Amino acid sequence: MGAREVGLPERVPAGGLPPRVEIWEVGARDGLQNESSVVPVEVKLEFLDRLAGAGLTTLEATSFVHPKWVPQLADAEQLLAGLDRHDGVRYPVLVPNDRGLNRALEAGVDHIAIFASATETFAQRNLNSTFDDQFGMFEPVVARARKEGLEVRGYLSMCFGDPWEGVVDVEQVVRAGKRLLDFGCSQLSLGDTIGVATTNQVTRLIEAFGDTSALAVHFHDTYGQALANTEAALRAGVSTVDSSAGGLGGCPYAESATGNLATEDLVWLLEGLGVEHGVDLGKLVETSVWMAGQLGRPSPSRVVNALAG
Ligand code: HMG
Ligand code: MG
């Protein structure tokens, strides 16, 4: 089943939109880290293989975090060892600290992502660190990773709202994000970790950064705003969007965080807007339906359900 065969609209010339969007698929990491059960490594490997087969070229594979903090991803070494790397596909992993970087280097990764918090409370809950101290943890990790020839992405969480602190100050987010870029991150992904943002906030934050060339967006879909927020980000100059197949996802250290923007929902939007994405929607839907079977519950994605047949 290809995109054309499911009756998608013809491409239309885009206005104020990037010609192509890079989809940063986080299902195997952000999705599976929040599952109550631990998914067997063989299933994770098949998931990644199918995602690559559907045309996705950035597959965030796992995390080298403390296995007690995220037991769902405690098999990171096994996963990397078993990975059938597709040509032209990159497999970044999350790394919080020196220990995580050692593990990632031993596993042969060439792309990592660090993940900071825009707020004090989430830094403590997610990283066992203060807001200020997290930068001291990440700076040497980025420097060493770059020296080893790795590419480094920076995530910034709680960029719009925080469950403990409420609305997050735009200037605070911009200052924290620019610090990560100054460390040497080649990209900064702005996270709406608990999915509360609305379009005006998104536009305002991106405009406050000024230069959008290194920005990506990472929306969770708790309040159903992720797709609208994505379009606002694209119109503000962003061209890398994070999403997870089938809408899997969430953060175990922020209970109000539900799944990410579903990749299928994103692809449907991009297709309608005439923006290139490189994904075979039919194959992706088949993958999410298969994964939902493995997890024993249906995908929350509207597009998956509409197309699953
Ligand atoms: P800590 O307990 O403060 O660590 O955790 P520590 O430095 O005090 O070390 C304690 C022990 O843990 C030591 O072992 C270390 O070696 C070991 P001991 O000497 O006692 O035997 N250790 C490790 N072992 C394996 N791998 C490691 C590691 N680090 C230390 N990497 C730490 C601090 C940062 C490690 C912990 O808080 C942690 O792992 N946090 C990760 C939480 C997480 O993964 N959250 C989800 C990802 S973030 C997210 O989902 C948001 C995002 O999607 C964007 C958005 O939505 O906004 C990215
Ligand atoms: Mg997330």
Beginning-to-end CA distance, first to last residue: 11 Å
**Which spans have pLDDT < 50 for at least 5 consecutive residues?**
8-14
What would CATH call the class? Answer: Alpha Beta
- Write the CATH fold name: TIM Barrel
Radius of gyration: 18 Å
Q: CATH superfamily, called what? A: Aldolase class I
What does this structure look like?
The protein is globular. 41% of the residues lie in helices and 14% in strands. The strands form two sheets. A nine-stranded parallel beta sheet has the order 2-1-11-10-9-6-5-4-3. It has a two-stranded antiparallel sheet with strand order 7-8. The chain is of the alpha/beta class. It has a single domain (4-10, 24-308), classed as Aldolase class I (TIM Barrel). β4, α4 and β5 form a beta-alpha-beta unit. Magnesium ion is lined by residues 30, 191, 193, 218, 220, 251.
Short descriptors:
single chain; 309 residues; alpha/beta; TIM Barrel; nine-stranded parallel beta sheet; two-stranded antiparallel ribbon; 12 helices; globular; binds 3-hydroxy-3-methylglutaryl-coenzyme A; binds magnesium ion
SSE diagram, text form:
Layout: E1 22-25, H1 27-31, H2 41-53, E2 58-59, E3 62-63, H3 76-82, E4 93-94, H4 98-106, E5 111-117, H5 120-127, H6 131-147, E6 151-157, E7 161-162, E8 166-167, H7 170-183, E9 187-192, H8 199-209, E10 215-219, H9 226-235, E11 240-243, H10 263-273, H11 281-295, H12 302-308
Parallel strand pairs: 1-2, 1-11, 3-4, 4-5, 5-6, 6-9, 9-10, 10-11
Antiparallel strand pairs: 7-8
Helix pairs in contact: 2-11, 7-8, 8-9, 11-12
The structure holds 3-hydroxy-3-methylglutaryl-coenzyme A and magnesium ion.
Magnesium ion is lined by residues 30, 191, 193, 218, 220, 251.
